[in-house]
């Protein structure tokens, strides 16, 4: 199954323009969008009355179409308008709606509120009076549904331009947008359903991270074909141990903990002391370095050796404090910074998290995984992928070390770093969901096998 696209406002307009060039019309696209919204509302109405707020643009036109379909299904529906339709298609949609159109400032609330005021492409804050009306009607509703995006949200960046109440459901028209996934706007969208408008998307640069497909070992496999991972330890042995055990549980056939002492951990974990030639083994498929590494001279020597090894690398945590600013990597390496580490590595980059990760990957030559509640993976060639919001219980010490180990195992097992990072993010989040509230990083390791089973 092809990865689901995540499109900016400009990319969405280009897809619509291409469809129109092939013979579609704005009206036919609006008809599909409105019907999809009506379907989403009807499935939740349970006899409750619906109020649809229509703006002047095509988002409002979608609202008029939805109202018409709901009325045909004998679902009680009213329409309130912010302003007269401003496009031909929206005007046609309003003419086809045979019911009355009330004024937004005077309209009484309803149990179900549908926001079709402003969707993709909003660039400026709403008028305060409009925000107040949305808040008033939202507060009074039992169920709130947004058409494409909640009004007041910036499509491409996840920023909130005005006071926006939270919605229970958002119907993404045609494709997901960055605002559905990035913070803080993702917190306002509720459950997201994507409506198929029959569009074709070409040269997609950003996709959604979804459940990966994993493959069980064949009878011909052995521990080395499943992948050998070397995890380099430092002053905080627990962090490296988390990465190493995560690599074991994520499918690596052989994991070495190098320089981590002899205490604790599974008996199946191989331990080696640090030496200058410890990374020379040609069977090592990936080196994980940074968790608990420290900042001393020994740590610096280990990082230098890892960078010179020619191996695929997962660089995390303390490695970022030691990485020379002029280091140029390749796409065999992956950097996994959180926001603070990212700022230290790359400075204050403009744009959304997607823009920042993409620019950092191009600048460094490496795959970049910008970690957060909404994580982004970017490749130096411009591809990017965004993960759905992860469980907030992952905001706990050591969970990033576990993620580094999972990535290392997947790379050693044969995935390229860009794919490995995406699969690891999904497994990491799924292990957290299975671990439940109040998890600690160790719990993720325990739940990784069950998370992986869901992908076989």
Your description of this structure?
37% of the residues lie in helices and 16% in strands. The protein contains 14 helices and 17 strands. The chain has a ten-stranded mixed β-sheet with strand order 8-17-16-15-14-13-12-9-10-11, with helices on both faces.
Describe the secondary structure blueprint for this structure:
Elements lengths: L8 H13 L4 H20 L4 E5 L3 H15 L4 E5 L6 H9 L4 E3 L8 E5 L11 H13 L2 E5 L21 E5 L12 H4 L1 E5 L10 E3 L19 E5 L4 H13 L4 E5 L11 E3 L11 E6 L7 H12 L4 E3 L3 H4 L10 E3 L3 H8 L6 H12 L2 E4 L5 E3 L5 E3 L12 H14 L4 H19 L5 H13 L3
Parallel strand pairs: 1-2, 1-4, 2-3, 4-5, 5-6, 6-7, 8-17, 9-10, 9-12, 10-11, 12-13, 13-14, 14-15
Antiparallel strand pairs: 15-16, 16-17
User: What's the average pLDDT?
Assistant: 95
**pLDDT < 50 runs, ≥5 residues:** none
Number-wise, the strands total: 17
Kindly provide the name of the CATH class of the largest domain.
Answer: Alpha Beta
Distance between the termini: 15 Å
What would CATH call the architecture of the largest domain?
A: 3-Layer(aba) Sandwich
- Class computed from helices, strands and strand pairing: alpha/beta
Coarse shape: elongated
How many domains? The number is 2
Largest β sheet strand count, sense and barrel closure: 10 strands, mixed
Say which CATH homologous superfamily of the largest domain is assigned: Ribokinase
Number of discrete helical segments: 14
- Tell me what portion of residues adopts beta-strand conformation: 15-25%
Task: Determine the fraction of residues in helical runs and give it as a percent range.
Answer: 25-40%
Q: From the 3D structure, determine the CATH topology of the largest domain.
A: UDP-N-acetylmuramoyl-L-alanine:D-glutamate ligase
Instruction: Return Rg in Å.
Output: 25 Å
